[in-house]
Structure formats: structure tokens, C-alpha cells
Design a protein that fits this description.
The protein has 80 residues and is an all-alpha fold. The protein is built from 3 helices and no strands. The termini are far apart. Helix 2 (31-46) crosses helix 3.
Length: 80
């Protein structure tokens, strides 16, 4: 059964609490900030802080894809 409502919200809010908000009106996120957020997300999703040698390529590819997607999102959304 998929998670919905309160359970889903609680899970998602607790899932990435160390990832900081990157959309800021006063200054855009730096590439390092976007990459750090992507790394934190992949660590949480994969369960690895540091992947095994066997999984390093997949881990790094996921970080790069998520960083790219995050940057595209930040570049395309309107500021307040």
C-alpha cells in the first residue's frame, strides 16, 4: 500500500532534513550547494554514506543526474 497523507508527509519531512533550501531570493544557490544537496539525497535514498567500490559509478551518476535536475528546476522556477 503506498504511503499517503500524514505518513507520507512525515516520512518526506524527516527524510532529508539535512538538505538546505536552495531557492533563495537574495542569492542563487552555488554549484557546490546544489551538488551537496544531491549527494545528501542520494545518500539517504541509497542508504550509503560511502558506496562500495562496486556501486561507486551508479552512486556518482545518480548524484550528477539529481544535481543537474535540481539546477534546471532552480533555473526555471520564478522567484517570489
Amino acid at each position: 500500500m503506498p504511503w499517503t497523507g500524514w505518513a507520507l508527509t512525515s516520512y518526506l519531512l524527516g527524510m532529508c532534513r539535512s538538505i538546505k533550501t536552495l531557492r533563495r531570493a537574495e542569492e542563487p544557490a552555488t554549484p557546490d550547494e546544489v551538488n551537496a544537496a544531491a549527494l545528501q539525497f542520494v545518500r539517504k535514498v541509497s542508504g550509503y554514506r560511502v558506496p562500495s567500490q562496486k556501486n561507486t559509478q551508479a552512486f556518482e551518476a545518480a548524484v550528477a543526474e539529481i544535481a543537474d535536475a535540481s539546477q534546471r528546476l532552480l533555473d526555471s522556477i520564478a522567484t517570489r
